[in-house]
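User: Hi! Is it possible to get a structure for several chains at once, not just one? Here's what I have:
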Amino acid sequence: MTRKAAAAGKAAAPGAVSEAPGPTAAPALRAHSPEVSAARARRWGSLYFAEHVLRVMKSYSWTIVMYGVGQPVAYLFAMGVGLATLVDTGRGAIFGGVSYLTFIAPALLISAAVMSAASEFTFPIMDGFKWRRVYYGPHASPLTPQQIALGQVIAVTVRFLLQSAIYFGVVALFGAAPSPWGWVSILVATLAGLSFGLPLMAYAASITQDKGQFAMVMRFLVMPLFLFSGTFFPLDTLPLTVRWIGWISPIWHGTELGRVFSYGYQEAPLLTVAHVVFLLALAVLGWLLTKRQFIKRMAG
Amino acid sequence: MSSPAETGPPQYVITAENLTKRYGDVAAVDGISFSVPAGEAFGLLGPNGAGKSTTMKMIGAVSQRTSGSLSIMGLDPDLNGPEVRAHLGVVPQQDNLDEELKVRDNLLVYGRYFGLPMSYLRPKADELLEFAQLTDKAKSKVDALSGGMKRRLTIARSLINEPRILLLDEPTTGLDPQARHILWDRLFRLKEQGVTLILTTHYMDEAEQLCDRLIVVDKGRIMAEGSPANLIREYSTREVLELRFGSERNASIGAELEGIGERVETLPDRVLIYAHDGEAALEEVSGRGLRPVTSLVRRSSLEDVFLRLTGRSLVD
Amino acid sequence: MSAGTTSHSDTEAARNRKFGPLYSRNVRAVVARGLMATRSSNWMVMLSGFFEPVLYLIAMGVGLGAIVGTVQGPGGGEISYAAYIAPALLAVSAMNGAVYDSTWNVFFKMNFSKLYQGMLYTSLGPLDVAMGEIFLALLRGLMYATGFTAVMGLMGLLTTPWAILMIPAAVLIAFGFASFGMGITSFMKTFQQMDWINFIMLPMFLFSATFYPLSVYPEYIQWFIQAMPLWHGVDLLRQISVGAFSPATAIHVGYYLVMIALGMLLTTGRLRKLFLK
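Assistant: Yes, the chains can be modeled jointly so their relative placement is included. Here is the combined structure:
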């Protein structure tokens, strides 16, 4: 900020809009200077946009709870209690010695986060650029495109954390998370959501024409990942022709990790490390692509 | 045009020198220069595709220029984007309000982008809703508003940080006449308060109503510059006689009218005769035995200036 | 003058016709428009609807089937887990497809693309539109059902020629849901309300004896589930798939016939209210 500009700012201030409505504005209402605005936006801009997105989410919080918590709990009941009557009969060894309910509880947690990612990182992103062009409002303010992208991610991360925590509470009430480390699976679910969601966000930000791409993502990506990621049965019961789907699936890596934390599932420590690295790498890659796409799209 | 920064007061808030923006081989803005002093209402008049919006985006620090120089409040928008944008209020061509939030919340949320505290924003939002005549809509959903109301809300939103420069890109396009007049009235008040207005428009009446000074742009270049009155004086006559002879005949009759008034312009749907005295010109037309289907005498407008400069109409 | 008499007699004709102004006997026009729109839209999206139940069948039938082994089928005989859930998944997909087509699709066209407003400016009546949309939904349901049954055959899950009857039965199920879905959609105003539909469908899908027998539940829950439409669809298709019929078969079919009649009544009434005030 140059001194000259600052001086110009001061000189023009008396003409500013705050005087607009005249006599009614008794206590002089004065915005801080543009210099302060710019400095604050540079520092906190992402959080300002996250606040915006969270306010919007608040208006559909009921839907979030139903999809983010109600849906996995319904599956937990149907499968973990109902279907368990067919699978729990003396075949416990397949599920690492735990009940079927305990086995699928972390898988449903991770799947719910990934499915939420599939809704939060598709239409709302495209909406920001295309239909209602919500991103172009903040774009004219001191915020930068990467701050807008980051703000969106932060807000969705908050959603993941909240819905996962509530769902985990339900699981704990069922007694289906015996390990004292079970709560870590909340973080794992959030990471899995970002790991699947951020590459998707980059893709959504690159779409200019809606041709039903997101319906395809749901059906050809999310559904197969949900069904073939060791969610309802261990991955190695599947033939190799479809088993590979699990290996590239954030749901499988997240689920295995979640099982380690929620009931002490035994696997090679190296594999556990691999899960974390896989999820982190995908999330970081997705973020870099997203950032690039937002800057490219908005700097026109 | 004098050079800006070192002239001292009157400060130029915006200075563009040879400003250029290319998309591939196409120059959307092709080397334009202008300066805007504080408190002026400055217009960019031109048809669609003239480069007005591109210029606005560069001033708004959301689009990088290809070459030339640009300074907003002494800052380079390409290097100090956030600082420049902190000085501005922007009313974009297409509304981008958040329709999932209520009317008042749109203002609050937008104010937060400038780091403004809620203690300031709450009373300020009420004040601006009053200014935009939307107080009774504060708790409504945005999609329940009419086009004119959305526009006013967008203007209110752009004022939340008390900007001294307001950018308005086609502020009244798509609004009905009544909504336009309400909007003009609000913009006039801002002008009275000393806010610098930069606006693009392809409506000549809007430019005449609001602008102290304007540039006429076409194909990315400046065709003329001056106050609306001066431009009309310089590029047109006092009055215009508009004649219609029926679609088939306008062109052929145009030739027979040569010599009447100062200039004859033949358009597909009508013939324009530029003359100091329109009535006298009409008598002359009758004297030559020509009977137009309709005739109309009016004052010259910026539309005529544009026609003279480019040979085309503003609104196609 | 002659024009006046013509329109007068047209009015008379309309008055004497069944459903009067609601129906102009031109469902064809709506169906033709729908087919044309399908041709120019994304085929992959169309096709993808068929894959979802197949994916479930492979994942649950093969993956989980390896753990579950065999279960008791409707006739009392032991059948593989895949053969057990396949007819249920077909019933679910008939429900999902019909509900999607008659709710979200109709909601969008009613409130956003304003397609129906345009249609109703012509000589078409609301009942033409409704029946056209339902016909299109059923046509799609028929295609999906045929495809799914073929997949069952390929996986060796069909043991009786009776199984071919699953296709018309699936269309019957789709008809039941579609006729109701449209009437219900006419009450909806916002997307949030539309979400309600999903929240009803998901538990129905999970709890209607889709993946395990009804006997798992305590008796009062069994009664409740047997009151739900999807359970009748699941049980009907499951019986047909092994050719084991019982008096319950007639009850299932009857349930859907009543559902279709009530649904059409509701839809017609709502359309009258919405468009001919």
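The mean pLDDT of chain B is 89. The domain at 5-227 of chain B is CATH 3.40.50.300 (Rossmann fold).

User: Great, thank you!
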